[in-house]
Amino acid sequence: MKTSKTRLVTVIQTALAVTAASVILSSPANAALDFTDVTGAIDNGTLLAAIGVLAVVKVAPGFARWGFNQVIRWFR
Predict the structure, then answer these.
(1) How confident is the model at residue 3, as a pLDDT?
(2) CA distances, 52 to each of 45, 58, 63 (Å)
(3) What burial letters (b/e) apply to 24-51, b meaning 16+ CB within 10 Å?
(4) Distance between CA atoms of residues 76 and 67, nearest Å
């Protein structure tokens, strides 16, 4: 029962967040948003570095665990 209540609260919060974002972005002050400066500032090197960092963060814990186990096996 607790799980269904948690899911309901999550669904309601998500719906409210989406509604608030759509209201904010549809206001006349934001009608002429131009993101070309933001996307133009990200070059290929920055993008590749970010992808590389994400890969290291994803792979490093498993690799460290594997390496630690290899060293421990060597001493056994």
Answers:
(1) 67
(2) 10, 10, 15
(3) eeeeeeeeeeeeeeeeeeeeeeeeeeee
(4) 15
